[in-house]
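Quick one:
INPUT:
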């Protein structure tokens, strides 16, 4: 048993959607979260820059004695996961892409007439990691891909419920989904979970998959295998608090935090911190 916290990070606040699920599934665990809101979005930045930012954040989480890292960011997982594992070889690091690909590839082995696609940031889509991993797990399976670079800026600006979001959704996805006859859509960015219901309303026949569930299950398996799960919480040794950091806390970010955690009993209080 290991009472140390789990480190979670994202380019912004979209990763909180993974944290809320993690705390529901593993309520005895503690979290140290870092959202790099001052430098978001990562999806339009260079590969070396993203890797540098990611190393900085993981080093910060290591300073907080985190026992494992959960990357709640598809962009980082797509291009920096191997680099981070090399930089921190003794630290269990779980990305967000591999678990959902493994889960869906197993599902698609027994299903017919599935035409799946993934949407994500420019960096994630250009990395080609989703199609490559699907090909490795399920040879011959074709996965369509579409970059939606405006989604994250709109969400981070607190405009996820604005008419501009609908315009962006129609712009990127109407022709793409229709031409490909897509039946299943993977949300290849943790921010996109926040517009999931909007996507369901616009495309009611579409099956939509968010990778957070598969990632949390993969993390739980790693913690179990390595004996790192937290023990029972007692009055003598109560669990420590969850810590949440952001590199910038503007008014729109504070509103976004409230929107994400409104269904949670635990209050999330962010501390402003620049790396």
């Amino acid at each position: 048993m290991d009472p140390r916290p789990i480190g979670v990070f994202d380019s912004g606040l979209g990763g909180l959607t993974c944290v809320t699920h993690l705390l529901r599934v593993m309520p005895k665990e503690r979290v140290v979260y870092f959202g790099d809101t001052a430098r978001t979005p990562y999806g339009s930045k260079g590969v070396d820059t993203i890797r540098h930012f990611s190393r900085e954040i993981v080093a910060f989480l290591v300073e907080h004695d985190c026992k494992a890292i959960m990357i709640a960011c598809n962009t980082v997982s797509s291009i920096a996961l191997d680099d981070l594992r090399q930089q921190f070889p003794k630290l269990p690091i779980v990305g967000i892409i591999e678990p959902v690909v493994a889960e869906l590839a197993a599902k698609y082995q027994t299903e017919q007439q599935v035409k799946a696609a993934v949407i994500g940031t420019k960096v994630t889509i250009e990395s080609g990691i989703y199609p490559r991993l699907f090909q490795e797990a399920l040879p011959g399976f074709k996965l369509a891909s579409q970059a939606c670079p405006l989604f994250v800026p709109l969400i981070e600006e607190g405009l996820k419920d604005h008419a501009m979001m609908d315009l962006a959704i129609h712009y990127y996805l109407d022709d793409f989904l229709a031409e490909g006859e897509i039946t299943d859509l993977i949300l290849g960015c943790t921010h996109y979970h926040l517009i999931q219901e909007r996507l369901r309303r616009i495309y009611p026949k579409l099956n939509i998959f968010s990778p957070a569930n598969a990632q949390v299950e993969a993390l739980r398996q790693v913690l179990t295998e390595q004996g790192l799960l937290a023990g029972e919480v007692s009055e003598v040794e109560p669990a420590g608090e969850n810590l949440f950091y952001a590199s910038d806390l503007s008014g729109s970010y504070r509103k976004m935090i409230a929107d994400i955690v409104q269904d949670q009993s635990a209050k999330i209080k962010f501390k402003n911190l620049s790396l």
